[in-house]
Specification:
This protein has 598 residues and is an all-alpha fold. The chain is built from 28 helices and no strands.
């Protein structure tokens, strides 16, 4: 493990933060990082999100606290942030090994090698690169490590159990410890809420004892999971989308196909992407849905038939199914597929794989005992060779997380239909123009903006599949591009389109687009001949109603008030900015100009 695990971050270890890919929002802008480990910062992360949803969705205060601790210890060190992710990933691997030792005691011969196989496959699988190499995914690695630690506390194997292993109750001290660890996991990320089903299944299937005690312990985990679901649905309200295809039936059919795609990525993870555009399954006669059903039923039937320890097999299958809950929920995130979600399914999948192989070899040995050892050795060599291949692919994929440009290009190259990916490319073109140096010619600026418009056209097609980003956001971005090209009157209708929508009908994620539309219309009014100063002022006031601390808008408002002759109001505006590093000098000059000689 020590030799293979670094492949997950090998080619991005010394890279900077992916600021446009959530590192800026979830890591550097977290209150414990920005404000230090103060009581107010902790209140903003632990309490405030439960009162009002924020533009930053998700309830993950413990992960934000971990970033704050790192900031206090060694400042902004993305290499050390990634190293912590890797160490948490290895901790999960060791906890999986402990579970293999406790849950699969009949694995003989080559017990140590077979018990370690799930660990190796988990450590190096390329689908885990995103969780370890991307600093934002601290929530993934931290929450899984805590969840596995909680499950390890519950699994107490009876010393006299036979092949059908029976576990004694963990005892209330260990059970309370497991509940505490599981609560911390839910505070690190919302995904562990699905694991409540696995904990309940373990108590009901694997533990010997009174039914009342098992039900009580199961209820504790289910209650924590339900509270975690409620908290995250509250904070994710701005990005939750309807069921795929529009109904629960089409969503269930699409889910079967999604599992088929994930199964292909697990076996052959050589075409991974950040997000996938999946066309919903709308017709029950579609073959891709039934192929997914065949894979699900075939895997489950093979595991149950081959495994001698049937209750452990049922538990592992339920554990794996619960892990898929995050992307099979009727309402969820916009993109149907994210490879990093498989991080939660791999522990149960790898353990059930090893248990299934051992069961098959045992059944095979009844018929041809002299061949069993040869078959076991050959299978072990094949799987270890596959693990080495996975490690090599992980090293290659880690390069994608070395820079924002690499991640942009890989995402769209793998999934050209992705509306979200095309929107990012259009947004990147706009940012390049805004930040372009003085050496850029006008022709280069126009060419960059023309390419951004083409990406927006492709994004609109992808939105029909993904429903993300919202069409109104695309409209505002098109208005911005036309404005930067100097086509002011063509840009104006795109900005006005979102302002015509009643505020109550806007999604929280569209509020930033409303701000951008008001700002664009203010600029257009100011640049007309003659300038429409009252119109520009009206839109700037609307911008400040959304973001009262926006310094650039404050300065522009004060300048327009000065032009309109409203000197007292202009002075008040400049007064607020006189000590600012960027706008302070110009504000002080304006104040002197308005006050006249003293």
């Amino acid at each position: 493990m020590g030799a293979l695990a670094p492949s997950l971050i090998a080619r991005c270890f010394h890279s900077d933060y992916l600021r446009q890919w959530d590192d800026g929002v979830y890591v550097l802008d977290a209150a414990p990082v920005r404000e230090g480990l103060t009581a107010e910062a902790l209140r903003k992360e632990f309490v405030e999100p439960l009162k009002d949803p924020r533009p930053r969705p998700g309830y993950m205060p413990l992960s934000a606290l971990s970033h704050g601790l790192e900031q206090a210890l060694y400042g902004e060190r993305p290499d050390l942030n990634r190293l912590v992710n890797l160490l948490l990933h290895l901790a999960s691997a060791l906890l999986i090994w402990r579970l293999a030792v406790k849950l699969l005691p009949q694995l003989e011969p080559n017990y140590a090698a077979w018990a370690g196989l799930p660990v190796v496959l988990f450590v190096v699988h390329p689908t885990n690169v995103e969780s370890v190499a991307w600093i934002t995914e601290r929530d993934n690695v931290l929450a899984l490590a805590l969840s596995l630690a909680a499950l390890n506390l519950l699994v107490v194997r009876h010393p006299f159990s036979e092949a059908e292993a029976v576990h004694v109750p963990a005892g209330w001290a260990r059970t309370l410890g497991a509940l505490a660890l599981y609560t911390l996991a839910c505070l690190a990320k919302g995904t562990p809420s699905c694991y409540a089903v696995a904990f309940a299944a373990f108590e009901l299937l694997m533990v010997r004892g009174s039914l009342a005690g098992r039900l009580l312990r199961s209820a504790g985990f289910l209650a924590i999971g339900a509270a975690c679901v409620a908290a995250n649905l509250h904070t994710y309200a701005s990005v939750v989308v309807p069921p795929a295809g529009g109904s629960l039936g089409t969503h269930a059919m699409t889910a079967c196909y999604v599992i088929l795609r994930y199964a292909a990525n697990l076996v052959w993870p050589f075409n991974l992407a950040y997000a996938y555009a999946v066309a919903p399954v709308l017709d029950p006669t579609e073959g891709r849905m039934w192929l997914g059903v065949a894979v699900i039923l075939g895997w489950s039937a093979t595991v149950l038939w081959s495994v001698l320890q049937s209750r452990a097999a049922i538990f592992l299958l339920l554990w794996t199914a619960a892990s898929f809950g995050i992307f099979l929920a009727p309402q969820g995130l916009p993109a149907l597929m994210h490879d990093r979600f498989l991080y939660w399914a791999l522990p149960g999948l790898t353990l059930s794989l090893v248990l299934m192989l051992d069961g098959l070899f045992c059944r095979f040995g009844y018929v041809m005992n002299f061949m069993e050892q040869l078959a076991r050795g050959f299978a072990l060599m094949v799987l270890l060779g596959l693990a080495a291949l996975y490690g090599w692919k992980s090293c290659q994929r880690s390069a994608v997380f070395a820079s924002e440009d690499a991640l942009f290009e890989d995402s769209v190259a793998k999934e050209p239909r992705s509306g979200l990916g095309q929107y990012w490319l259009a947004d990147r073109g706009v940012l390049r123009v805004l930040k372009g140096d003085e050496s850029w010619s006008e022709a280069e600026r126009q060419r960059e903006l023309d390419e951004a418009l083409e990406h927006l056209k492709l994004a609109r097609r992808g939105v029909n599949i993904e429903r993300h980003p919202a069409p109104l956001i695309l409209d505002v971005r098109e208005g911005t591009i036309l404005f930067l090209q100097g086509r002011l009157m063509e840009a104006k209708p795109w900005f006005e389109k979102i302002l015509a929508v009643p505020p109550a009908e806007l999604q929280p994620s569209e509020h930033d687009a409303v701000f951008e539309a008001h700002y664009g219309l203010a600029e257009i009014a100011f640049r007309q001949d003659p300038p429409q100063l009252e119109e520009a002022l009206k839109h700037l006031e609307a911008c400040l109603a959304q973001r009262p601390d926006h310094l650039k808008v404050q300065f522009q408002r004060a300048a327009i008030l000065e032009s309109l002759g409203r000197k007292a109001e202009a002075l008040q505006g400049y007064e607020k900015l006189k000590d600012d590093a960027w706008f302070g000098p110009a504000s002080r000059d304006a104040m002197n100009r308005l006050k006249g000689p003293q």
